[in-house]
Structures are given as structure tokens and as C-alpha cells.
Design brief:
- The chain is built from 25 helices and 16 strands.
- By secondary structure, it is an alpha/beta fold.
- It folds into two domains: 252 residues, 3-Layer(aba) Sandwich (Rossmann fold), CATH 3.40.50.300; 225 residues, no CATH class.
- The strands form six sheets. It has a five-stranded parallel sheet.
- Helix 15 packs across helix 20.
- The N terminus and C terminus are likely disordered.
């Protein structure tokens, strides 16, 4: 019983004073001090900071840690799909689990030093009987996506004439103020995504309250020394096209931190595996490593492509969406043929083009070629590079020789594994090369491995493939029978 009483939260100001939330403890501790103290405690106890953020351990996260230790307002600069918003939302981990505030206050007023006129009035009237509430850390984070139509009133506040009329107050009374998002984030974290999209006059209101704590609402001067940590995100390449961060505001932001895309293929694959929705109703799913590498390599190659606008970047959402589509195409095939195991094949990556083309901002030359053609070429290049990492061309020369002797093979992406494997067994060196990938002997995995070998040879231009996924060696015109030559002139061969 005594323990239950000790754990009971204070509900009035008098009870709060008798708890460990004493006035001396809370008076000089700002939200930035709170974040700093909790961060130091987490570092000493080796707790994980920013769980789920991959690839920033040695680059971005140390800079964020320094910004918190320095008690800085911070802006994250980076292209789309670089986990900026996730980092902002992860900052709440450095807040206390809960915080006492005056009950019913719009701006989470400090129980011992309230800012708003209503709370000061309540405190003067009720004194130690003033009701207290506890706000969890999630309730102390406010986020706003910046758009050109955001106004000063949205962020700072406005006079509420209806409140004035109902209360019989003069419009000049501070009790008639309807507070905006920034005051409502008092004693917490206020985040703005895409800061350059804010109009210049709105940015002015931000830096004024950051530095001086003074604002004006409809000509009514109000001093609000808010206790808030401001964090922003921005795309540095958008400054000229969509706006810019005004210089006085940049000057008041303590730390400017640059984010980046995954630096290695392994980091990208880890992010994709973590974020992609791959759990499909208990279905047994096995994704070969070469499929994972091809999907991730698509994003890496796209970021280097001369046909794609580097100022817009290629979001990490591309391989995530692509992998989900790849698995869905494999799942569709497994459901249609009642296969027990879902195993993606390289053909499923080509089927995932809709998850790729919409995420590419093309340059002029790329627009002329078309997103479908560019994406198809990038997939083929990704297959070729991955093939070179896993298998050597020398190991596959017997396969090329089999095709040189007139052999042809059709392997449709909708073909069930058992049927496909029977066709593939006609090429013994192909199965031998597939087994070098060290996969299990299930038909679904063997077919995927064989198709990877064939696609790799096609990417290296050792064999050809038509639109029906028929693999063959294209003979010279002089060696080609007239009927086949005429068919080839009608576009039989697919040479993207």
C-alpha cells in the first residue's frame, strides 16, 4: 500500500512540490538541458541511439550527438529518402518519459513559471490546488510539413474573436490568443520538414522567437520566452527552385548536418531488408542474395546515371518498393501454381518496373529515351555487375558454347518451377554453374539461380534474349535462314 502511494503521480501543484519534481530541480532545466542529460546517460550505459537508422553510425549520428550536447537548434540537409524525418522523430528518445504541466494549458505551461495569462491567473487563484497533468514524451513532439500557404498565424497564433465574444473580453486581452503550433510545442521539440518552402515572412517569425522570444499577434505584443528545441529538414538542391532559408534564420541555427545515401551495397541491403514489407501471410519466402544485390544495385547505378537528375536524387524508397514488387510477382506465380515456396527470380525484377520508373527524375536526354528504357537498361547493368561478383565468365563458357551450337531455351517468368527445371536440365553446364551459387536444391531456388546465370550472360552480351524470354545466340545474317531473318527484321530480338 505504501509503495502504491509512492508511485502515485501528483495531481495538484502542492503535491508536485512535495514530490521529486521540486521547484529547484525544474526551475533551471530547459528542454535542451533535458535532452543533453538523457543523451549523456544513454552514452554511459551504451544504450542504442536512433534504432533503425543504418549507415549513419560514423557520419551523421556523431554530428547529431554533438548538436544535442551543444544545445543547438539543428537543420538536416539532404536529398529525398535519406531518413531525415525518421531522425527528427527519433529525437523524442532524449526527452524524459513524462513531464508535469498545468492541466488544460495549450502550451504545456511550467507549473512553477507559467507563460500564458490564463495559467498565471489560475495559479494566482487556486495556488497549491492548481491541477497538474503529466505529458508523455510523444506528446511533446510537434511536426509541421512546410508548404507555401503556411502563415504566421498557423505557426505562432492569432486572435480568436469567438473566444473573446464568449468570454466578454476585449480583443486586446492576451486571454483571447489562439496559440499556433510553435507555442504548443513549448517544453518540447518542434520540427519543420522542408523548411525552404516556408515564405520568408514566416521564417522571420521563426528566427525572432528563437532568438528574442518576442512575437506580435495582430499588432498585440506578446512576450513568450518559449522553451523549445527547433529542428528542421531541407533539400539543399531545392533552394533556387522552391525557395531558400533566409540568412538570419540560418545564422540562428546552431548545427547544419548533411545526410547521405548508403555508402555501401551492404548498408543499402540492410535498410531495404528492414523497411520492405516481405512477410506475406506466413508464406515461406526465400530471397536469393543475388536478387537482393541486383535490387540494391539498381539504386546505386541510378544515382550515377547521366540520364537521371542528380539534384533530385534517387530515394532509398526505390529499392524498398522494388523489392516489395519483386516478392509480389514471385508470390503471384507461387499462388497460381500452388508452390509451397516463394522464390523471386531475375525476371521478377523486370516485372517490378512500375516501382522504379515513378521514382526517377530524368534529365532532358533521359526524357527523350523514356523512363521505361532507362530503368530497363539500369536493371540489365545491375544484373551484369552482380553476375561478375558471383560468377566468372570462364565458368560459364560451356553454357555459351551450348547456345553457339544452336541451342535455344525459353524460360517465361510465369512458368512453374518444376516445369522450368525440366527444361533447364537440357543444359548440364547451366545447372553446374547455378550450383556454384551454393543455394539449396529446391526447384524454385535452382530455377532462380539458372535464370540469374542466363540473365548475366545476356547482360554481358554473350547470348541474346527476346521479349518472350527466349535465350539463344544470334547468328550472323549470312548464316540465318530467310524465314528467321525476316522474323528478326520484324523485331524478334530484344536488344535493350
Amino acid at each position: 500500500m505504501a509503495k502504491a502511494k509512492l508511485e502515485k503521480k501528483p495531481t495538484t501543484l502542492g503535491a508536485l512540490k512535495r514530490s521529486h519534481f521540486t521547484e529547484d530541480r525544474m526551475a533551471r532545466r530547459t528542454v535542451k538541458d533535458e535532452m543533453r542529460e538523457n543523451l549523456i546517460r544513454m552514452m554511459r550505459s551504451r544504450e542504442t541511439r536512433f534504432p533503425g537508422i543504418v549507415g549513419y553510425e560514423e557520419t551523421v549520428i556523431p554530428q547529431i550527438v554533438n548538436a544535442i550536447l551543444s544545445r543547438h537548434h539543428t537543420v538536416l540537409l539532404g536529398l529525398r529518402g535519406q531518413a531525415k524525418s525518421r531522425i527528427l522523430r527519433g529525437l523524442i528518445a532524449f526527452l524524459d518519459a513524462e513531464m508535469p504541466a498545468i492541466d488544460g494549458c495549450e502550451i504545456n505551461d511550467h507549473p512553477y513559471a507559467p507563460l500564458c495569462a490564463g495559467c498565471r491567473q489560475k495559479l494566482a487563484t487556486m495556488k497549491d490546488d492548481t491541477p497538474i497533468t503529466f505529458i508523455p514524451r510523444d506528446g511533446r513532439y510537434v511536426e509541421k510539413l512546410a508548404t507555401p500557404d503556411v502563415t504566421v498565424a498557423d505557426l505562432i497564433g492569432d486572435i480568436d474573436p469567438i473566444r473573446a465574444a464568449r468570454s466578454g473580453l476585449d480583443l486586446s486581452s492576451p486571454l483571447t490568443i489562439h496559440f499556433g503550433l510553435l507555442p504548443r510545442a513549448n517544453r518540447g521539440i518542434f520540427a519543420i520538414n522542408e523548411l525552404p518552402d516556408l515564405a520568408a515572412k514566416v521564417q522571420v517569425a521563426l528566427f525572432n522567437i528563437m532568438q528574442e522570444g518576442d512575437i506580435q499577434i495582430k499588432g498585440h505584443p506578446v512576450r513568450l520566452p518559449l522553451d523549445v528545441c527547433l529542428v528542421f529538414t531541407a533539400n539543399p538542391e531545392d533552394y533556387t527552385a522552391r525557395g531558400k532559408i533566409i540568412t538570419p534564420l540560418k545564422d540562428r541555427i546552431g548545427s547544419e548536418i548533411r545526410t547521405h545515401y548508403p555508402l555501401t551495397l551492404q548498408e543499402g541491403m540492410a535498410i531495404t531488408a528492414q523497411e520492405a514489407w516481405l512477410s506475406r501471410d506466413g508464406t515461406q519466402l526465400s530471397i536469393p542474395s543475388f536478387v537482393q544485390e541486383i535490387v540494391e544495385r539498381i539504386a546505386f547505378l541510378a544515382r550515377e546515371s547521366k540520364y537521371i537528375d542528380k539534384r533530385s536524387g534517387v530515394s532509398q524508397r526505390l529499392p524498398i518498393s522494388c523489392m516489395e514488387n519483386v516478392v509480389s510477382n514471385a508470390e503471384r506465380r507461387a499462388v497460381l501454381h500452388r508452390e509451397k515456396m516463394v522464390v523471386p527470380r531475375p525476371a521478377d525484377i523486370f516485372a517490378a518496373l512500375p516501382a522504379i520508373t515513378g521514382k526517377l527524375e530524368l534529365e532532358y536526354e533521359g526524357e527523350m529515351r523514356g523512363a521505361h528504357t532507362i530503368a530497363h537498361g539500369i536493371i540489365r547493368e545491375a544484373v551484369g555487375e552482380t553476375f561478375a561478383q558471383h560468377l566468372g565468365l570462364a565458368d560459364c563458357l560451356p553454357i555459351v558454347e551450348w547456345f553457339n551450337q544452336g541451342g535455344e531455351m525459353r524460360l517465361a517468368d510465369s512458368m512453374p518451377a518444376e516445369e522450368a527445371l525440366k527444361s533447364l536440365q537440357k543444359i548440364p553446364p547451366l545447372l553446374l554453374a547455378a550450383r556454384r551459387l551454393k543455394l539449396d536444391e529446391q526447384p524454385e531456388l535452382l530455377v532462380s539461380a539458372c535464370e540469374f546465370v542466363l540473365e548475366g550472360l545476356h547482360a554481358l552480351q554473350k547470348i541474346s534474349r527476346n521479349e518472350d524470354r527466349g535465350y539463344f545466340v544470334e547468328r550472323r545474317a549470312a548464316e540465318t535462314p530467310p524465314a528467321e531473318r525476316e522474323q528478326g527484321q520484324r523485331g524478334r530480338y530484344y536488344n535493350n
